[in-house]
Amino acid sequence: MYPKFINFIKENPLLKVTSLNSGAILVKMITGLIISKLTAYFLGPVGIALIGNLRNGQSVINTIASSGIQKGVVSLTANGKEKKKLLQILTNTFFSLGLLVSVVVSVFLLLFSNEVSFYIFQTNSYIWIINLIAFSLPINTLNLFILSILQGLSDFKKVISINIITSIFNLALFSVLLYFLELEGAFVTVILLSTIQFIITLYYAKPYYYLFRNLKLFYFPKKIVFSLSKYGLMTLISSITFPLVYLGIRREIMVGLSNTDAGYWEAMSRLSSHYILLMVSIINLYVLPKLSSANNQNSFKETVLEFYKLIIPFYGVGLIIIYALRYYIIRIVYSQEFLPIQGLFLGQLIGDFFYILALVMTYQMHAKRQVKRFLVTDLFLAIGLYVFSIYLLDIFGLKGVMYAHASINFLYFLLVLFIFRKPLFNQSK
């Protein structure tokens, strides 16, 4: 029985990628949970809320610096991986764009560090944090592109190894800096992690150094740039809108309730991010490259149904277990101080379930550059989440934000399902 199960995994590409990736995700989850525990112990709910603000702010900055084209890098690399010369042209274009835009964004941050600090933290005390982000930005952008190239080339083992080592470094650096520098140390770790990962990525990318020979600065072939611009528009809308929405919701909670309640909400979101990470990683590693190289609607249907059949049942059972053990999870991951978030679990888990059901379908929009569809669905989700959260926050308090999360993600799933109803439900002839 056991050998048959192992062979079944080896023969199924999706399960094979999932099993390879599970080690990296397990390490990242464990290190992430330990980091959450340390943060709760040393900084409490208010510290967790401030770190959440930094993560959201940095996410917006990183997305703008990378032009939001990382999914485009994956897709174009996957399509051209059999053509060495084309890959070199693509790589040159990626790096020219990355360096140009990231340097421009860095200069902007240095010039307006005071305003950016106040927007993210509601104080000018962290100007030095904004400056540190500015100086590390070009390296972080190049790191992101190299990882995307490796992913597009389907070199999953290298990507997974990089992620494992990065997670271990993250825990070590976070622990030391948090102990000696407290909140400022946590901030520095969040900012410099991608820079550390860049060194690790360079080591693992050695077999592909030939792609970086004869690189030219300011190399922008119109056809490739135009193709990337569609991916960029989609990712920029998503990756900028949602962090801004989260910042807005967190501010409303701070003003309407308290900083501690904002910390509770961030703590629940951080817990959610750990298991969502597993699902998104599987979709990024397996589903996106497969959809990018597919030439017909049947491939989309087969990929989505395969994911639903093989992955979603485990995901659903996992969410039920998390809900049943929520008291113990809070005590282990955080502390008794965070027990009030027990009431937030149900809405969060329901919303997360429908979000993943929808997400695997929306990757077809990235793969096939369906810009209008993506903008409609993503803006629907972002604006709906903010509006529902603000409205229900006034009625139900902090639980209202969770009701909003569950409601809008269910509606988001129905909208995406409606958009893809023909390729999913029509019988092929």
TrEMBL record:
Transmembrane spans: 89-113, 125-147, 159-180, 186-205, 225-247, 267-287, 307-329, 341-363, 375-396, 402-420
Keywords: Cell membrane, Membrane, Transmembrane, Transmembrane helix
Pfam families, per database record: Polysacc_synt
Compartments it resides in: Cell membrane
Keyword Cell membrane: yes
Membrane topology classification: Multi-pass membrane protein
Superkingdom of source: Bacteria
Gene Ontology cellular component annotations, sorted alphabetically: plasma membrane
Statement: the UniProt record of this protein carries the keyword Transport: no
Single biological process term from Gene Ontology: enterobacterial common antigen biosynthetic process
Identification of the protein by name: PST family polysaccharide transporter
Organism lineage: Bacteria, Pseudomonadati, Bacteroidota, Flavobacteriia, Flavobacteriales
